[in-house]
Amino acid sequence: MPFRRARALTGLAVVPLALLVWPTGAPEVPPAPADARSFVWDRDAAWRDLEQRFVQARTAGCADSAATTGALDALHARVARLDGEVLAPSALVFDSLESAYFATAAEVAACGGAVASLVPRFVALHVRLREAVKAQSLAWDVNTPEVRSRLYRALYGGRAAVEEVMLQQPAAAERLVLGASTATVGRSVTPSAESNGVTLHSGDILVSRGGFPTSALIARGNDYPGNFSHIALVHVDSATREISVIEAHIEAGVSVSSAERYLADKKLRVMVLRPRADLPALRRDPLLPHRAASAMLARARSTHIPYDFSMDYTDPAKLFCSEVASAAYGAEGLTLWMGISTISREGLRRWLSAFGVEHFATQEPSDLEYDPQVHVVAEWHDAATLFDDHVDNAVTDVMLEEADRGATLSFAWHTLPIARVMKAYSWVRVQFGGSGPIPEGMSAPAALRNRSYGAEHAARARAVREAAAEWQAEHGYAPAYWTLVELARGRMTG
Question: Which residues contact 349 (CB under 8 A, 6 or more apart)?
């Protein structure tokens, strides 16, 4: 009898152990959104030509800086003329401006140290061009591929050119870049308070980029790869002027923090967006942004809102970061993200599915900037964080190329039992209002894949930084983004 009892007890112990070590299969990958396609610049030769132009101007000692100044003057005048025109997204003037803009960027990157006014004037040109294109897009259908591509080329491409200039001329780069000064578009009557040189209004939207590997994946994991990974909503108390930041965190769901605490989290860049004051909804109710922020603040403080790993922007019960803003404004009748983000690449969908994502037509943080309804108020960044951002992006882009070729996200099988125990512990913590090591809504295998991905990305990023330092020492200037991509591929030797 004792032997039989011991054998029975052993059998009972084996069952939960087997459950802990039982392997889990890869989740089913939903199909790509209908008619979705990934944007491709397909201009590698043009980027190389621009780099040669930069090298030549740099070697010549910027002897023709007067011509660069003149080119900037001409571009400012051409952009100013856009304000008086109504143009289709296919208008050739946009292609002409893009080519001239990129060519001038190469000259400014080379000569900005010799002529102090070049870099700030080039940045101002980007701000004016962005505002002009966004104003034109108010009459466009932003869900058509033609319009999405035009907005992306102008806004993302314009920022990319500015950042290459900043990385070559870091001493001339301003940490804070204010948006276009326009009393009509950017005004707000909601409660306001100052933060880091910017007047924030209740209802403003903070778009940021985290410094973690998954932040880069969120930013780049899109049919229109971007630079931002996180959305937060600003509330300013009308009596105390206290700034509260409402945001959804993977670890704990929706939370409320101070502006100081928000900025204390590792961020490589932050942009402030504001709904245009001339929108019909805001003309009828100028306090609509404050009411949207107030309602979301009250909800966040009164109940626990889990993080939405599936990225279903139509279900307000759980919220991922973009939904905090879109749900708040949607409840007040203003639909943000006029252009819905899509994720069509097979490898990327397979990886995101392994993290728990189920919806590939959604609201990506980077894409809110392209919404014609929002005005860019300001953007903070500096050369050091921009370089970190570019390295993380380059590594991510290369890893996603490997995903398209069939690479999978894996983890050591023997870590699964521990992860499942930690998941159970985390579940108990959540029931008592806390959080555990594995976020609510994330499975143990997904957490292990996340950890494995982060470790691989971090190791590659360190290698790219080392290679970039060697490359810069040899060539005398910072490697451009396309060079960082080649370094991440391991194809460049000097």
Answer: 29, 30, 32, 343, 360
